[in-house]
Amino acid sequence: MSAPAAEDVDDDLWSAIGDPTRRRMLDLLLVEGDGTATSLAQRLPVTRQAVAKHLGVLDRAGLVRGTPAGREKRYRVDDAQLARAVAQLSSVGAAWDARLRRIKRIAEAIQRTQQD
Amino acid sequence: MSAPAAEDVDDDLWSAIGDPTRRRMLDLLLVEGDGTATSLAQRLPVTRQAVAKHLGVLDRAGLVRGTPAGREKRYRVDDAQLARAVAQLSSVGAAWDARLRRIKRIAEAIQRTQQD
DNA sequence: CGCCTCCTGCAACCTTTGGTTGCGCATGAG
DNA sequence: CTCATGCGCAACCAAAGGTTGCAGGAGGCG
């Protein structure tokens, strides 16, 4: 018990997916299979350079991998690492959910004792 | 299908729980029931002022509520709003998970056709 | 009451990070 | 060969997380 998920979190991974722009980039890469800084920037409200920086962050976090292809550099999601990230999300969510439920149970118990 | 969960996300809520210090604060508040800026700062690696700022952010996001009690101000978690945040976490996680599974299915299908 | 202590709030400042513009360079297309 | 397209690097800006320092209000106690 007492898996304090929020303390086990890989902060690099979490902060990588914590940014809204990076989340949308991951979404796009998942949907389209792959993409370049330029192609992603076209469907995002930021410049190509901003996207490139984010790709660097995601790359260092291991969430994407880029391979040079001629004059462009195509990035694609690393499935395993994204799966790890998803696991951390649900881990934190489950921990909080469990604590909320516990609090609710206690509150109900108190109500019961007061009604006696 | 194609529910692009990452776009439905309430960015204020998400960015509130995106910060590691704020996540640990929520954890502490959940475990201990309530707390003040000073009491939280004692078990966190940051100063009281930093904690106070974070409490401000969490308050504006609706995740905590603070009530003055004499010379101190006690904060406690808003269960409903945290439940909403948990829902968003699992929503994004589920969306990515679904896409990962879909990719895996497609990959397997391709393998099968190639084996034929 | 008067003093002292503790907790809070406000302000100035530093550093990191997400974002921009501008430029130079390489590589594929005509 | 020439041109344009895509990339990387550098300078710069604003917002956010964090720190120190200081002034003020509520409680405890002689």
Walkthrough of the structure:
The structure is a homodimer of 116-residue chains. Chain A has 116 residues and is mainly alpha-helical. Chain A has a single domain, classed as Winged helix-like DNA-binding domain superfamily/Winged helix DNA-binding domain (Arc Repressor Mutant, subunit A, Orthogonal Bundle). Helices cover 70% and strands 10% of the residues of chain A. Chain A has 6 helices and 2 strands. Chain A has a two-stranded antiparallel ribbon. In chain A, strand 1 and strand 2 form a beta hairpin. Chain A is elongated. Chain A starts with a helix and ends with a helix. The model of chain A has no long low-confidence stretch (mean pLDDT 92). Chains A and B meet through helix 2, helix 3 and helix 6 of A and helix 2, helix 3 and helix 6 of B. The first copy, chain A, binds a DNA duplex (30 and 30 nucleotides) through helix 5.
Question: Can you tag this structure with a few keywords?
Answer:
mainly alpha, two-stranded antiparallel sheet, homodimer, DNA binding (chains A, B), DNA-binding transcription factor activity (chains A, B), 6 helices, 116 residues, Arc Repressor Mutant, subunit A
Total beta-strand segments of chain A: 2
Structural class of chain A: mainly alpha
Query: Roughly what fraction of the amino acids of chain A lie in strands?
Result: 5-15%
| Oligomeric state | homodimer
Evaluate the radius of gyration of chain A: 20 Å
User: Any idea what the CATH superfamily of chain A is called?
Assistant: Winged helix-like DNA-binding domain superfamily/Winged helix DNA-binding domain
* Biggest interface pair, counts: A-B, 32 and 32 residues
- Model regions low in confidence, pLDDT < 50 over at least 5 residues of chain A: none
Q: Which sequence of SSEs, written as H and E, runs from N to C of chain A?
A: HHHHHEEH
Q: How many helices of chain A?
A: 6
CATH arch. level architecture of chain A: Orthogonal Bundle
The name of the CATH topology of chain A is Arc Repressor Mutant, subunit A
Domain HTH arsR-type (chains A, B): 2-97
Keywords (chains A, B): DNA-binding, Transcription, Transcription regulation
InterPro entries (chains A, B): ArsR-like_HTH (IPR011991), HTH_ArsR_DNA-bd_dom (IPR001845), HTH_MetalResp_TranReg (IPR051081), WH-like_DNA-bd_sf (IPR036388), WH_DNA-bd_sf (IPR036390)
Protein name (chains A, B): Winged helix-turn-helix transcriptional regulator
